Hints:
34% of the residues lie in helices and 14% in strands.
Amino acid sequence: MSLTTELIKSYSKECGFDLCGITTPEAPERDVSRYQKWLAKGLHADMQYMADKVDRRCDPSLNLPEVKSIIMLGLNYYQPNSNQPEPDSGQVARYARGRDYHKIFETKIRALLRLINDKFPELDTRKEFKYFVDYGPFLERAYAEKAGLGYIGKNSMLITEEYGSWVMLAEVLTTVELKPDKPNQNRHGHCGNCQRCIIHCPTGAIIAPGVVDASKCISYLTIEKRSEIEPTLRAKIGNRIFGCDICQEVCPHNHPLQRSTPTTNKEFLPESGVGEFVNLKQALALESQEQFLDLTAGTALTRPKLEGLKRNAQTCVNNIPKSD
């Protein structure tokens, strides 16, 4: 018996993944061209790592020689917002409220590789498989679309038939040749004439269908940006201390009665991490790295570092409506 696409999908489900698709290593030319144009226009802002190793992003064989297949994996992280937001608090994007998604994926992928190794001991999973959880150079949304998991919408998010755009992605490269899935095998829908994500983005970051100017995106401003946020953008951030879900919340594909299915993975839930809200006074009172890690360790909120989190908290405080 040999390792097959059907077995990989069965094993992935057994290890807790919500989505699994298989594709070939060749990068979609359309997406490579779009990415190169996005970089050329400087739309990646100061995220220099996005411009590094472009060749590796477009050629998986530079990450794993003799790669023959790409296994795309997805996890649903959706959870509804509270009806009563906490006063004097900053809201955290849904994906970051629980445990760091990198750790969630890594645990499940290692379990998947152990299972493959148990079933097929002749395969050396240390040499014939290599995985990334968005920290490696890889056009993951393009490959997820190619693997049939969804399509890339006007907000640049992958939109799936099962969970809308509330999915995180990871990928496993392998030298094992697997039967690829068809890109259009599922009815993921389409954006059509809908412009809701473009219209409702507070900062106008979606400058064209599928094109995001990172320098205006609230997620970039509150997570990746290291310097001060421009005054014209601060007021538009509102009470978002980490990340932003607006372009997903307004998407018809994410209507709660359709594809927004609450995650069954408890590690994504608020009780596993910092929660839906961060108390602004508590964040501003942080003075040391130790205090910062007491609050954020094991979660995605370590990303902006102490200085960035306090900057975001102050922005949220400044945006609280002043009573007369």
